[in-house]
Amino acid sequence: MTLTLDCKDIGTNCPYVAHGETEEELMVDAIEHSKEVLDYTDEQMNTKKSGGKLE
């Protein structure tokens, strides 16, 4: 079963949808997209993991 995560669910106005067969694959896809396309930093990604919004 393919898992999905809509980019807009993390507070962006981006239509991208990350996909993965496992949670790990899903997160790799989402993080790569966030860094490469949305220019988020590691620090911003760590803020999101701890419950904060991406800035």
Q: So how many helices?
A: 2
Summed over residues and divided by their number, the pLDDT gives a mean of: 84
Number of strands: 2
Show unreliable segments: none
Helix content: 40-55%
Structural class: alpha+beta
Largest sheet: 2 strands, antiparallel
Helix-strand sequence: EEHH
Rounded to an integer in angstroms, the radius of gyration calculated over CA atoms is 11 Å
General form: globular
Placed side by side, the strands forming the largest sheet appear as 1-2
Strand content: 5-15%
Q: How many domains would you count in the coordinates?
A: 1
- What is the terminal separation in angstroms? 31 Å
Describe the secondary structure blueprint for this structure.
Blueprint: E1 3-6, E2 17-20, H1 23-36, H2 42-49
Antiparallel strand pairs: 1-2
3D architecture notes:
This protein has 55 residues and is of the alpha+beta class. It contains two helices and two strands, in the order E-E-H-H. It has a two-stranded antiparallel ribbon with strand order 1-2. The model has no long low-confidence stretch (mean pLDDT 84). The chain has one domain (3-49).
Quickly list its features.
55 residues; alpha+beta; two-stranded antiparallel ribbon; 2 helices
